[in-house]
Amino acid sequence: MWRIAAPMILSNISIPLVGITDTVITGHLENPEYIASIAVATTIIGFFIASMNFLRMGTTGITAQYFGAQDQNGLKVILGQTLLVALLISFLVLLLQSDINKIGLMLIGSNESVAYYASQYFYIRIWGIPATLINFSLIGWFIGLQNASVPLKIVIATNITNIVLSLTFVLIFNMQINGIALASVIAEIIGMLIGFYYIKNELAKYPGEWLYKSIFRLSTYKRFIKINTNIFIRTIALIFTFAFITAQGARYGGVILGANALLMNLQSLLAYMLDGFAHAAEALVGKAVGKKDNQLFKAAVKICLKWSVYIAIIFTLLYAITGKHLISLMTHHQIIRDTAIEYLPWMIISPIVSVWSFLYDGVFIGATRSKDMRNAMLGSLFLVFLPSWYFLQPLGNHGLWLAFTLFMISRGVTMHILYKRIGLTSD
Questions:
Q1: Does residue 45 contact residue 179 with C-beta atoms inside 8 Å?
Q2: Sign, CA torsion 34/40/44/46
Q3: Does 264 fall in a domain?
Q4: Which of 35, 87, 339, 345 is the most buried (most CB within 10 A)?
């Protein structure tokens, strides 16, 4: 587990650090609306990037099962299929970029000034989408092969490049938000090139045939599409929840929007840390399903869950002790600091509340139980989060965070119940 989880934890931690760096850079620029603009722009483009994460998750589960079954031809087929799908989706997103931005700004409802800066970021960052989606496919494939070192190299190189270029473009070349967006595009391309560099060596370990008919024939995508459609719906529902929180923050005003953005960076840091163990669960559970090894299946779930809980407890203590200091580091605007600190208690309890759904996501992905993942997410969204938010509106932003907390509790409980139904069969 640690051979997979440790590299993924290191790489995952660097992901929210990019967002935090961007927030710190914009938070120390003269115009306080830059923070809100980054929040809006990354919500719009992040919605599409995150919704395409099925390319990573679905690829991992299927690849891990082929790996467990020692199906070398299947390993090459799934690689070809996921890369072709990534390219097709990228083409459609670039073609529709103007409509995507307009709809996103309309749904979030930001003011004219914030919308202007957000659009500047969007129309540059969107050109990194092809590299981003290809990276999803490559990372998912490598994790499925129990190889976490290559994803570590891809993600670390991408994020270090992003941070360095963001600082360079903004502080030296004074490119403001445009510099942050351009840095992201260049970094994603570098990560993609690194991934392709390591593919050749990895493929040499598996001398199976390239079944081109299976890669290019539409009928062979039935399982891939079935699994990933459910993951896509599940992910859309999750991203909608976070976008909804951002949209409500925008309606409460720029200060609340900025404060919520700071807290979401802390939630992201937690998520990517816990996802390291979820990635390990994906690979190990998928391998167990492919081998039909029930002992490996149970052992993988047990060890990943134990360490996930340990990390969650550490994060709760970390946010309780240093949360105010972390918020102060992210912006010098005192009113945003004070507002974020007011809502910090919700972030202190979040690790213990969220840990269960993170881990079970990994288990369900490895077992390719995408239908159960979808149902758990939709039930938590429509039966818990939205009704809770509606009735808690008199509490303002506190009501919004309480609804989110209930949503995460519901996901964990529902997935635990569905977990009992998992056997060593796939979708």
A1: no
A2: positive
A3: yes
A4: 35
199 lies in some domain: yes
Q: Of 231, 233, 268, 261, which is closest to residue 245 (Cα–Cα)?
A: 261
What confidence score (pLDDT) does residue 426 get? 47
> What local confidence, expressed as pLDDT, does residue 290 receive?
87
Q: Is 237 inside a domain boundary?
A: yes
Question: What spatial distance separates the first Cα and last Cα of the chain, rounded to whole Å?
Answer: 24
* Nearest-5° Cα angle at 394, 376 to 249: 65
Residue type, 46: G
Dist CA 93 CA 110 (whole Å): 22
CB 133 within 8 A of CB 189: no
Contact criterion met (CB below 8 Å) for 288 and 65:
no
Place of tokens 């660097």: 14
Please indicate, yes or no, if residue 127 is contained in any of the structural domains.
yes
Domain count of the fold of the chain: 1
At 361 the pLDDT is 93
| CA–CA distance, 97 with 192 (Å, rounded to integer) | 22
What's the domain range around 188? 2-419
- What pLDDT was estimated at residue 90? 93
Which two three-digit tokens encode residue 28?
């120390």
What pTM was computed for the model? 0.79
- 3-class secondary structure for the chain? CHHHHHHHHHHHHHHHHHHHHHHHHHHCCCCCHHHHHHHHHHHHHHHHHHHCCHHHHHHHHHHHHHHHCCCHHHHHHHHHHHHHHHHHHHHHHHHCHHHHHHHHHHHHCCCHHHHHHHHHHHHHHHHHHHHHHHHHHHHHHHHHCCCCHHHHHHHHHHHHHHHHHHHHHHHHCCCHHHHHHHHHHHHHHHHHHHHHHHHHHHHCCCCCCCCHHHHHCHHHHHHHHHHHHHHHHHHHHHHHHHHHHHHHHHHHCHHHHHHHHHHHHHHHHHHHHHHHHHHHHHHHHHHHHHHCCHHHHHHHHHHHHHHHHHHHHHHHHHHHHHHHHHHHHHCCCHHHHHHHHHCHHHHHHHHHHHHHHHHHHHHHHHCCCHHHHHHHHHHHHHHHHHHHHHHCHHHCHHHHHHHHHHHHHHHHHHHHHHHCCCCCCCC
